[in-house]
Amino acid sequence: MLALHVQSAAVAVSATFFFIVLLYVIFLESFARRRLPKGLPTVGFGSGPFFASRASISQLLVTLNTVDQGYRQYGARQHAFVIPTPSFRPLVLLPQQYVQWLARQPESILDHEPVNYDRQSVKYFPFSFDFKKLQIAMKMSLTKGLNLTLDASQPHMYKCIQDAIDSGLGTDAEGCWKEVRLIQRVREIADNAVISVFLGSELSNDKAFRRLLHHFYYGLGILLEFVGLFPVGLLRLIVANSLYLYLMAVKKICITYYLRSVISKRIAQLDSRANDVDESSDFVVQCIRTVRKLEFPLGRDEATFISELLMFLVAVGGLSINSTLVACAVHIFGHEGQQQNIYSVLRQEAESIFKSDADWTSPNSLECLVNIDSCVRETGRLNPTLAFVLTKQVIPKDGIMLPDGSHVPHGTWVGVPAEAIHTDDSIYPDAHTFDALRFANMRVEGKPNRSLESSEPNDTYFFFSYGRAACRGRWFATRVIKLFLAYLILHYDIKPLQGDIKKYEIADTQFYDSTAEMVVRKRKLN
């Protein structure tokens, strides 16, 4: 009798679970169909029962192929098109000719904030204050702090990068080669350099703090890149909230046991002798001064706000810089770099510029790194931070009209296929090939050539996004990347990588195989 009751209960639970799943699938299918624009061509949707759901789920593995197919069919012919996404929100992708139009639209027409909150999971960020306040403080810290002191802080940047590379790869100049994990070691070195630049040597030398901070910003990276891929509803809530709780715990430990004491000490120094503190090499002090100029109440104590601001800046900066450096290393030391002999070309350039320690601390030296800068820009072209940029949501209730007269309804997401434009042969000849000196060869002698520098976005180059959305920390990031590459190439011998490094993709996110190894040794320099 008991067995019969257990069996009946199991059948009831199974039936209930199946019914809930069926309702969820029907909800998702309806959610996707309601947001599918009617007057635009679609790519990747197919037909038949639950066509929107099947198309959305399949994009976890084929998003970039779908975008490439749609761009060749429609985008290259100056037509917008619609693709499915794993989040079940259809995305309207615009051709390159509409980029400036999209960038000019006011937030009352096309707003990026709803997209950020959904796709990048901003509403699950592990911060204890209003994220809008964090964004304002971050922008001010970069534009009125860091960017204004880049030249003065270069000696500090160089020392941080030098120490991070030498401690990560060794200083033994006796000719001994050693094998290291390429991706893992470059990331570790880049992370340590960024932590040191932003937070100072006291915290960057603390291994326990570094380990905690790495957990925080790789967790934040997962939140930014992957959680927004989950379909709306219960599944995303479970994953996002689990990650949120973990990140909140890590953040609290970082602030309570490490950051608060350092920041409180800086605050006390500023309060006691505000004019005697050197801001050029102390980003913590720059942040304190910036926060004190904000025109709104913090809602929390000053030290906590600044701690969370710094953790966010280190996380975003670290993720961007280390992913770019990894891609640069793969291209320079890999098969394509060998064919172009680019390692030797870049070393010759570095040797001709950095002849003394003073050259490493001079901003003029970095201006002369034309080939290394070209290599960084070309790496960014083939490895954009985001596959889609300028993604915004249609705000007017009656929708909007695209420049070609097509109607896009309220609530639809609209964006630009950055990677597809970056690999358009009509814009960049032989676009799928890594050409390290592509942008160096485009320069015209005697002209500024500012638009060809790695830090400068335009309507065909979106590594740092474009327009009002362009990254405000891009000058800092490119300076760190160029110093890093120049020091590594000049002071270390690195053997060519064996074989091609595998590149994986999940939806619109790509990453390299972390098991790849490189063989390196310290050079003997006179």
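Next protein, fold it too.
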Amino acid sequence: MISTFFPPIELDGTAELALLSLQACNSKPNVSEKNNSFRILTYNDYLESSTSVNNSVIDLSIPIGSYELDDIVNFTANNSIGELLGFNKKTFEGGVIHESEQMANINPLSCIRIECDIVHGAFVNGRETCSIHEFYPLVSPGYKIVESPNNLIYYSVLTNQIDNVKIEIKDQNGELVDFRGESVTRRFHEVENSSISKLPELTRESLTTLLNLGYTLENRNGRYSEHSRKTVLRRNNALSNNDEIRIAIQHQDLYTLPSESLLHIEGEVERNIETGNGEASVKLINNGIMFLFDEIRYELNSVEIDKVRNPGITTCMKGYASFQTANLYRYQNAGWNESGESREKFEVCIPLKVIMGFAEDHRKIIINSRQELILHRSSVDINALKCERANGKIKISKIMWRMPHINVEDSVRLKLLKTLDSRKPLYIAFRSWELFEHPYLPQTTKHSWAVKTSTHTEKPRYVIIGFQTKRKNKITADMSRFDHCSLILLKVFLNSESYPYDSLNIDFDNDKYSALYQMYSSFQDSFYNIDNGDPILTKEEFKDNAPIVVIDCSKQNEKIKSAPVDVRIEFETKIPIPNDTSAYCLILHDKIFEYNAMTSEVHKVV
């Protein structure tokens, strides 16, 4: 097989070549003109053969082709065709079962060797050859051969100009394989040594890093482009209250990175009441955009992977615990502003990783899968606003999901395709954020709240508790802030195990909450496995804005790990809980999914 290139391929410096794949039919005939005939003597004539009487002789010929053992045995009915089945050249008595002296040689190919005339550096039995790959065909004669080397082996190219390439496919004896007119497809990969060092770092990373370990998306790690996905609505201009907003990525032949995706939202605050001497100021509260939605969920191939209920409260509690002062300006671009925002029009870019645990933890590419982000608009907007004398409404004019697309080099793409062909499942592991609400606490000092019963596979790792008094559905209050409610004691019970073990002995009235702030400020060290976390709130701001209780229960004994877990919170206050007080419990627990990029199947593991 000779391939001619015009104009010739010019190579700068030395180059190397490797086989990517070979597709052919295992059609080398095991029955040829050398072994396709045999002779039958009738029984009576065989007895008289020594007397030179005319014998009855039947010569049979089998058509040249590729046969399996069962085909020939049935065709010959109890007789043999000699060497092909391992019999010596002699006459066998009829009516008797005979066993061949040698092994049957039904498959003439025990090795296929691919040679290319423009490479060197390979050796066979100590002799240098131009072979670039050899393998044993695993399919029977007549079936298709598909060979893709697991590891590409590059051989030096002998020339700097390629105008034709001669490819020879030989068997174990060095003879050309006769494919009897069947098509043969071969693919090669050529690299120039002068440019190998210039490839992005992504091309030298292993598939394990890409799929299982993840990587930080930077220019030095690979080329990527950011694409926007607009909303898919049930009716025109359906961005108002109680509407469902769907943003889908329909193309499945993409490599995407949801962990670095952004939710781009534009809109304006509409004032509708004027009171007193002048127009009242309606302010968008801190993280107010998230209070415009009741629920946000992410689906992969129409299977729900992660869901955030009441995103406003959830992201506030998680943000207060996770955000660092070093990234304060980036958070402001996402709508995080402690003093609120008084401008009429707003525009924010909110990273998906500050909205749900899937995007924060699964910093890996998603391959060949349909993805969809679904947002449910809340019934009212007042929880996102704050104003003393007026009312307001928020009008969203645009929502886009900006998703990075990863462009990988050919060598990495081949590894990815080989992984897809193997049909092995790919895993998605993350810590989900699940919010529970006690809407109206009784006006007592001691409380016991049975939050949920979780399976042993969804073990709580962290529990964050917060209280709010007279804030929900009140435009005069700031829903992004929390109240301490004169808390003096709190414990989280996972079955019979309590966290923390010691009593907190809190007294906010006398500024005794150091233990509580220590638990809050230590969250980042444990959750992100870093040293010296940088919490966004000072001790005074913690008391005034977000006196939340952060419980680390990631270190659990085996009893909890192997049985269902009842999550219960017991707390005590210095004075009875005020009227219209809600309690919120945010549980961070493990979740694992597996998906098959070839079959689009998605299953929950944990």
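About the second fold: Residues 45-54, 69-79, 193-223, 231-236 have pLDDT under 50 and may be disordered.
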